Amino acid sequence: MPTSGVVTRSEGAVFWVDVGGREITCVLRGRLKRDSRRVTSLVVVGDLVDVELLPDGTGAIKQRLNRQTELVRPGFRQREHLTAANLDLVVIVQSAREPPFDRHIIERYLVTARRGGMTAVVVVNKCDLEDEGVLLDEVRPLVARGVYVILASAARGGGLDELRALLAGRVSGLVGKSGVGKSSLLNALYPDFAARVSDVSDWSGKGRHTTTASRLYPIPEGGYIADTPGMRQVGIFDDSEADVESVFGEITALASRCRFRDCTHTHEPKCAVKEAVERGDIDPDRYQHYLRLRRRT
Ligand SMILES: Nc1nc2c(ncn2[C@@H]2O[C@H](COP(=O)(O)OP(=O)(O)OP(=O)(O)O)[C@@H](O)[C@H]2O)c(=O)[nH]1
Ligand SMILES: [Mg+2]
Ligand SMILES: [Zn+2]
Fold first, then answer.
1. Which domains does the chain have, with CATH numbers?
2. CA-wise closest residue to 152 among 177, 175, 129, 118
3. The pTM of the whole model exceeds 0.90
């Protein structure tokens, strides 16, 4: 008799499925197996699946149910780059330092979350390494746009209660660059998980990609949380123009006041966007980032 469950992790052809609190090792069956190389048959962490329980205690995944949301790696649209399915909330993790705070990456993930139909919050981790005044300056532009930001420290325990309350009962995913402390946060939040953590390699300041595959953990208060591997590369993007526009609302709102309908806000005279940047109404850094992303769409 088939029962349904949620895929918590996968390794090669093996999938682990949480069926009513029991984790069952499964393989794919039928059409899913036959077409398993095809994007349309992908089964990823967070997918709800129908499983047939076998006498030896393992299972066979017969069918994947339709997804509510899809989290694709930032910069990609294709399903091949699917990180997780059915998340309600994307927790964009940044570090205050090591690696340095990077608002552009946050913007990228905000685009990704919106596109995939998920809500997003930002967690700035490693706040123990930076002066609070500096941090508040960094996050002010995000907060001003209505982005929910939590200042946290996995090492010192800051912000964890607030984050735990947010995660309770939801299906969330921790995303962000390698080394920002996603797995460390998870361990600090729920010490029983023991997700693997490693030092940021000091020769490059880059993370070491300790987490190599997404994994979903059930949380004590209900719901699940996914730890995902840090992004390897930031630079190849295929976001649609609408995705980009939606994240830069304060810029696109002005576009209707430009003299030319098809104004690119770069060289045109009487460009309302450029004028706002000059007046200081639009953050010049966000303006530059907007132009860079637009060039790629
Ligand atoms: N000072 C300080 N260091 C931290 C904090 N959180 C994590 N670290 C350190 O940052 C390094 C990377 O942490 P991880 O949790 O492995 O980072 P990750 O985001 O999971 O990295 P990937 O799995 O590669 O994507 C480790 O050396 C942690 O000890 C923090 O709050 N403060
Ligand atoms: Mg990790
Ligand atoms: Zn313009």
1. 2-64 (2.40.50.140), 70-227 (3.40.50.300), 241-295 (1.10.40.50)
2. 129
3. no
